[in-house]
Amino acid sequence: MRKMLNRRTLLRGTGVAMSLPMLEAMIPVGRAANRNSKPVKRFVCLSNNYGVYQKAFFPDPTQAGKNYDIPETLKSLEKHRKDFTVFQNLDHGFTGGHQGVPVLLSGVRPILAHNYSEGNISLDQKLAEHHGAATRFSSLTLGCRERNLLSFTRTGVQVPSIDLRAAYRAMFLEDSAEKKASSTENFKRHSSILDVVKDQA
């Protein structure tokens, strides 16, 4: 396992004053790993379980190419239109309103997953298997007052969603001292019996 070498430690060991260049061993492990790496590509899928009004979301099918009249729902993305493409007719042939949501990223109904070698693994989880090691979290499934109906593992397990507001608070907001104390107490209350007896071993 690679260990970081402190520059001052080396200088004290030499017993002389010298100008020491930045050596590879002195670069923090995480920074060294990322210094020459290319930016990691991300895959983001957004789903509105209640669907969209198609005439206000999809461009007129008779307007092929990039100069289509942007639909009302996409007006706020007008300045970014050169960076995205709108595809239609990707419903895998499934109809039935909300019942089509679980097949969006797999094309397989959950009840039919046993007929396929990879089950009904969803696209996001497939990408996580191959590219997840390049990021801190291989996959994040976020939800806002809705359970995750899109993501499934190759064994057919529905990936639970993380509350979007809770995730935002955890990453960007500082909890009060009272909240931290409450969280610590909550962790203790839900600890394993092994944690109780480990000091007695």
Description:
The protein is 27% helix and 2% strand. The chain is built from seven helices and two strands; from the N terminus they run H-H-H-H-E-E-H-H-H. Strands 1-2 form a two-stranded parallel ribbon. The radius of gyration is 25 Å and the shape is extended. Mean pLDDT is 77; it is low at 14-18.
List the topology elements.
Blueprint: H1 7-14, H2 29-35, H3 54-57, H4 123-131, E1 142-143, E2 162-163, H5 164-172, H6 177-189, H7 193-197
Parallel strand pairs: 1-2
Please state the overall shape, judged from the principal axes of the Cα atoms.
Answer: extended
What percentage of amino acids are in beta strands? under 5%
How many individual β-strands?
2
Q: What average pLDDT do the residues reach? A: 77
Task: Quickly describe the structure.
With 201 residues, the chain is mostly helical. It is built from seven helices and two strands; from the N terminus they run H-H-H-H-E-E-H-H-H.
